[in-house]
Amino acid sequence: MAKKAPLTKIKKFRRDYYRLRELYSNDEIADKIPMDPGNLSSYVSGNKTPGAEFIDKFYSVFQEDLTKLGYDHPGDDDLLTEVNEEQLALMQRNRRVLIDELKVQNEFLRSNFGKIVETNQTMAESNNRMSQSNLILAETNHKLANPKGL
User: Fold this and answer.
1) What is the pTM assigned to this prediction?
2) Distance (Å, whole) CA 24 – CA 94
3) Residues 47-106: pLDDT tens digits?
């Protein structure tokens, strides 16, 4: 039976897997180990628990790539990737821009809601009148086609 890996080692493997995704796809990582890509995904997602041998093999294959990537996660670090300060500033700016745009759109909808309701009511009334006209037209055509009321 395969030797179980400690939980801290499993968590580190999962974090390092996500770091490797900067360089490789899931299929490419699986090919290098080698293993089935679906099983690898199950190990990463937590649907299956990787054993100690698998994790050791993972690090023997990818240790050099992980070293090149730089930042190594200490055991208590739950970050998946290091966040660049410029990226963080851009994300915050984009968030503010999006919120401002949503506020503008919300105000537009609120200020025009009455007009939308009024337009829908006018369309409903117009459709009703058109239906009545079509009924009269059908009755007239029927009378013209059957002048004796047959």
Assistant:
1) 0.48
2) 28
3) 999 999 999 999 999 999 998 888 665 554 555 555 667 777 788 888 889 999 999 999
Helix axes 52-69, 7-20, angle to 10 degrees: 40
Six token digits for residue 120: 């829908």
**Interatomic CA distance for residues 115 and 121, integer angstroms:** 10
For residue 82, what is the DSSP state?
P
CB 133 within 8 A of CB 127: no
- What is the chain's length? 150
Return the DSSP state at 51.
Answer: B
Number of Cβ within 10 Å of residue 42's Cβ equals 14
Residue spans per domain, the chain: 7-69, 83-150
Q: Which two tokens stand for residue 23?
A: 């360089």
Burial 91-112 (b: 16+ CB within 10 A, else e): eeeeeeeeeeeeeeeeeeeeee
Structure tokens at 85: 């300060």
Angle between helices 7-20 and 37-45 (to 10 degrees): 120
